[in-house]
Design goal:
single chain; alpha+beta; nine-stranded mixed sheet; 4 helices; 11 strands
Length: 198
């Protein structure tokens, strides 16, 4: 199965949602408006690529003639593997990306995601071990009890998030480690899955 880029994934997801809601396929201008893209030629290129990869086809050359040939859930997305994260630097800066990892679309939904290699055993009781890869949904807020990737003192850490009167508590899942309590915490995302290679 050929993988989709992030932008192809967004176009495909929009088409699928539109068909599900309206019962017919969107026009090129509908897709442009829905994805806030001005250039119709850009959308034509994405649709041609989706056709080449076997995710959709055109019934004919008329408007609204797109037919999905694969379920969105069967799509595969290349999620970037981030090697390092530093304050003030975009997560997806090219110098931070060490490669990519194919993940089924139904595992991640439609948000921005990245993979991060775990260093250490502070989350071992949560099933996250040294050298595992965590799948992270990029977001700046978290709910109590969610496992997050947080930036503290210019280092990324994976911990369970709790908001307290003294600040944010980043709780390890290993009694050998102490919780981190700080007001200066930047949430980078919430952990959505763990990948381990044997």
């Amino acid at each position: 199965m050929k993988k989709l880029t992030t932008r192809q994934q967004a176009v495909y997801g929009f088409i699928e949602d539109f068909i599900r809601e309206h019962g017919y396929s969107p026009s090129i201008r509908d897709i442009c408006a829905g994805l806030n893209i001005r250039s119709t030629s850009t959308i034509h290129t994405h649709i041609a690529n989706l056709e080449d990869k076997g995710y959709l086809r055109k019934k004919d050359n008329t408007n609204r003639s797109l037919v999905l040939t694969r379920s969105f859930e069967s799509a595969v997305v290349d999620v970037p593997i981030i090697g390092r994260i530093q304050a003030g630097e975009p997560i997806f800066a090219s110098e931070n990306v060490e490669g990519s990892f194919p993940v089924p679309q139904d595992r991640i939904g439609r948000g921005e995601h990245f993979m991060l290699r775990v260093q250490g055993d502070s989350m071992i009781d949560a099933g996250i071990c040294n050298h595992d890869f965590v799948l992270v949904e990029q977001k700046e807020v978290a709910e109590d009890g969610e496992i997050v990737v947080a930036l503290i003192e210019n280092e990324a850490t994976v911990k369970t998030f709790f908001r307290e009167s003294k600040g944010i508590r980043l709780q390890p899942a290993n009694d050998a480690f102490s919780p981190i309590i700080s007001r200066d915490v930047q949430i980078l995302g919430t952990v959505r899955g763990v990948f381990r290679f044997i």
